[in-house]
Amino acid sequence: MGEAKEVLHGGICSASVACSPPPEALATLMYLDQQLGTDHAQRFLTDDGPWKRWPGSADISLPDLQSTVRAEVTFAAGGNPAIRRTAKNQRR
Questions:
Q1: Which of 14, 33, 47, 70 has its CA 20 to 30 A from that of 91?
Q2: Distance between CA atoms of residues 40 and 58, nearest Å
Q3: Computed over its alpha carbons, how large is the radius of gyration of the chain?
Q4: What is the pLDDT along the chain (92 residues), one digit of tens a residue?
Q5: How many C-beta neighbours within 10 Å does residue 33 have?
Q6: To 5 degrees, how large is the angle CA 18–CA 21–CA 22?
Q7: Residue 74 in contact with residue 83, Cβ under 8 Å?
Q8: CA-CA-CA-CA torsion sign (86, 30, 53, 12)
Q9: Which superkingdom does the taxonomy of this entry point to (predicted)?
């Protein structure tokens, strides 16, 4: 019988494997690490770590998602209004 798995907040968990966060959460954690000088995301990014085993991870650009997070934070903080236009155009 296969190992029991559950989806927790969009991440994939099992009894023997740590949860892997969904891509947006991991990109946000990477952004926070960059801003705060920490390395909490690194445990998910090891060679055989949860992110590499996450289905579809090869098709997702974490640096692109991290740029999106950076733009959203800038917008939320009252930054460059052009970000609002860019975000609006991306949703179309």
A1: 33
A2: 21
A3: 16
A4: 444 444 444 454 554 445 656 899 999 999 999 999 999 999 999 988 888 888 888 889 999 999 999 988 888 888 766 666 666 666 66
A5: 15
A6: 145
A7: yes
A8: negative
A9: Bacteria
- Nearest-angstrom CA–CA distance, 25 and 87: 18
DSSP letter string, 32-76: HHHHHT--GGGGGSSTTSHHHHSTTGGG--HHHHHHHHHHHHHHH
CA distance 62 to 54: 13
In whole angstroms, what is the distance from residue 66 CA to residue 73 CA?
Answer: 11
pLDDT at 50: 87
